[in-house]
């Protein structure tokens, strides 16, 4: 049985940074599930059809990391049929040996509720906005507004809302350097593996 690490949390909290590092450390596959929603939103047209017809090329679009793509993603992500269309791909990805790390909003609650480890990564709104603004070279106040709007939509939607699984380990990266956040996550996974050996 593959070892699954589910990572959820609000926008720009550091999920992807931790997920990539965990995948590299443990030799697992990694999927940034936000990219599926970003590609669906960016494709335009009927979002349900776009989600069903998503191709690997769609995930390579150069504009997917923009704030506009994030907003479009969070609008299509509220549509249950879009989520259903993207679910199968995520489940197949998660079934790969020796294990997989998936990061998103509903991995520990909906996609992989039986994941061996669930992390919920948070950081203060101001810190997240500053980090993402530095990454994209954009204005911090605009970014704060964008992230808060997206988090609100993601938390308040009826379909698979953003929330921590009851058994998730919360990692607050507000005052952690990247290396400290990664070390905290590796330690959490190590101890879960010792408690529940394969
Ligand atoms: N602990 C940290 N200290 C400083 N910067 C960080 C830290 N963790 C992540 N970052 C930076 O913050 C930004 C957002 O991180 P990341 O992309 O990992 O967040 P995310 O939660 O995956 O975002 P998204 O919601 O878009 O998927 C990146 O520029 C990243 O390099
Ligand atoms: N499992 C997921 C992943 C993402 N979303 C939606 O996509 C938006 C963009 O995600 P990023 O991780 O790239 O920021 C996000 O705001 C969510 O609306 C989702 O619903 N479920």
Automatic annotation (TrEMBL):
Q: What is its main location?
A: cytoplasm
User: Could you say which EC number(s) this protein's record lists?
Assistant: 2.7.4.25
The record, for Gene3D superfamilies, names: P-loop containing nucleotide triphosphate hydrolases
Q: Where is each Cytidylate kinase domain found? A: 5-40, 63-190
Short name of one Pfam family: Cytidylate_kin
- One MF term in GO for this entry? kinase activity
This protein's UniProt keywords: ATP-binding, Cytoplasm, Kinase, Nucleotide-binding, Transferase
Catalysis: reaction(s): dCMP + ATP = dCDP + ADP; CMP + ATP = CDP + ADP
List ligand-binding residues for ATP.
9-17
Q: Where in the cell is it found?
A: Cytoplasm
Report whether Secreted shows up as a keyword of the record: no
Give the family from UniProt: Belongs to the cytidylate kinase family. Type 1 subfamily.
The protein, known as: Cytidylate kinase
Naturally occurring in which organism (per UniProt): Paracoccus maritimus
